[in-house]
Design goal:
It is built from 19 helices and six strands. With 459 residues, the protein is mostly helical. Helix 8 links the parallel strand 3 and strand 4.
Length: 459
């Protein structure tokens, strides 16, 4: 008989059992469910619902059950629907009558809510740790490539020269924000829902502050109805995960482009590349492509839970059982993507020569030449128009601005002097960006040092 079967005159159809059971996936929460049951049993003993003997029997049996699960000696039963009722059934099977008392003053609604929060708290800490390792790699690569210059792009067109370390540190800022978002999410979810009952609280004088301390929560939820209905924290995590994956996808896209023969800016290490079954010469950036592809499944998991929750009335509805599989998938995706991306990035070979050669194309110094004219007293729009004519002139003659003779340069404006040729040098253009946050060497070194301090605070 079902643990809730007293009101029913016959059992559910086998197809209903199969359709409604969640044990196939929520068994991942066994540790969290047992932890919640331990704390709940201690609290019940504290308010004299359980005797000391009952508590000892329950705690001993829960320890044995957890050990047996970890050894693979327990097969969960579909007829018990979910991890909560499977654990409770195993407990009652081992110790009898005291096991039937464990569900006093709680519901599966607040059980699953606390299980998911416990699960996510641990996984967010793990994911943040992986992000921290990636940030360290980016810092190291930025330091090692401080003098490498490449074209910066807008619209995938050559724009202005930048330092490679400057480009890498842009991604550092993105991943740093991801870390901060996840930490903020963790702070908001650090609230205990256990003790809320099915939706309205319980008639027992439960000590929820005690439960919070036992389970490591910062505070207790204030509204029982919200406690069991809330999946905001899960949606927030999925949203943060989607933004994180978007950053990985952008980075991978650039590396894939840079890895092409047309660019030749990077070469993937053999250990993080694959070949072709028919073309012997191929070396494909499959790791980067797979990461880019996995972004879609994380987005899908976010849209899935948003759609599940979008029109649910309060409080718990069975629809909410659909919150877990996408969550587990996102967590496992992040835990596989972050370390392998970090390994792939750390083993990249940057082709500094090709990067520098690419700065000779696309008139990357045009803005600096316009700024030169502005400093001679011209309005920027006038200077912009003059340099635009220079670019058109050079395009027709297949040359660069710095290749022109002084007499040619002066034909565009009489105030142009020979010092323009020095100012137009790519290295000079790069280091001329002295505004805070710019790509000058001094600025980039400052970025690196500031972000080292950020990492130290996390240690």
């Amino acid at each position: 008989m079902k643990l809730w079967g007293g009101r029913f005159s016959k059992g559910t159809a086998k197809t209903v059992d199969e359709f409604g059971a969640s044990i196939g996936f929520d068994q991942k929460l066994y540790k969290e469910d047992i932890a919640g049951s331990r704390a709940h049993a201690k609290m019940l003993a504290k308010i004299d619902v359980l005797s000391d003997e009952d508590l000892d029997a329950i705690l001993t049996a829960l320890d044995e059950i957890e050990s047996s699960i970890e050894k693979g000696n327990i097969s969960f039963m579909e007829e018990f629907e979910d991890i909560h009722m499977n654990i409770e059934s195993l407990l009652t099977e081992r110790i009898g009558y005291p096991g039937k008392k464990i569900h006093t003053a709680r519901s599966r609604n607040d059980q699953v809510a606390v299980d998911i929060r416990l699960y996510l708290k641990t996984r967010i800490e793990e994911i943040c740790g992986l992000i921290e390792e990636l940030l360290k790699t980016i810092i190291l690569m930025s330091e090692n490539n401080i003098d490498v210059i490449l074209p910066g792009f807008t619209h995938l067109q050559h724009a202005q020269p930048v330092r490679l370390s400057f480009h890498l540190m842009a991604y550092f800022e993105m991943f740093k924000r991801d870390h901060q978002r996840l930490t903020d999410c963790l702070d908001r979810m650090d609230v205990l829902p256990l003790g809320s009952g099915a939706l309205s609280g319980t008639t027992y004088p439960t000590d929820r502050v005690f439960l919070a301390k036992e389970l490591g929560f910062a505070k207790v939820s204030l509204n029982a109805l919200d406690s069991v209905s809330d999946r905001d924290y899960l949606i927030e995590f999925q949203s943060d995960a989607s933004i994180l994956m978007m950053h990985f996808s952008r980075f991978c896209e650039e590396l894939i482009i840079w890895n092409t023969s047309e660019f030749g800016f990077v070469e993937m290490d053999d250990a993080y590349s694959t070949g072709s079954s028919i073309m012997p010469q191929k070396k494909n950036p499959d790791v980067a492509e797979l990461i880019r592809g996995k972004t879609g499944r994380v987005y899908g998991n976010l849209m899935g839970i948003l759609t599940v929750m979008k029109s649910l009335p309060l409080a718990y509805n069975k629809d909410m059982q659909e919150d877990k599989e996408g969550l587990f998938d996102t967590v496992e995706t992040l835990k596989s993507v972050i370390p392998i991306f970090n390994e792939m990035l750390a083993t990249l070979t940057f082709n500094a020569g090709n990067m520098m050669q690419a700065t000779k194309m696309g008139f990357l110094n045009a803005t600096d030449i316009a700024d030169y004219l502005v400093k001679k007293g011209l309005p920027f729009r006038s200077a912009h128009e003059i340099v635009g004519r220079m670019v058109l002139y050079c395009t027709k003659r297949n040359c660069n601005i710095e290749d022109m003779r002084l007499s040619e340069l002066k034909s565009f404006h009489e105030d142009i002097q020979e010092d323009l040729l020095e100012i137009a040098r790519i290295e000079k253009c790069t280091d001329a960006k002295i505004s805070a946050g710019g790509t000058s060497k001094e600025n980039v070194m400052r970025m690196i040092e500031e972000n080292k301090k950020f990492l130290q605070l996390l240690a």
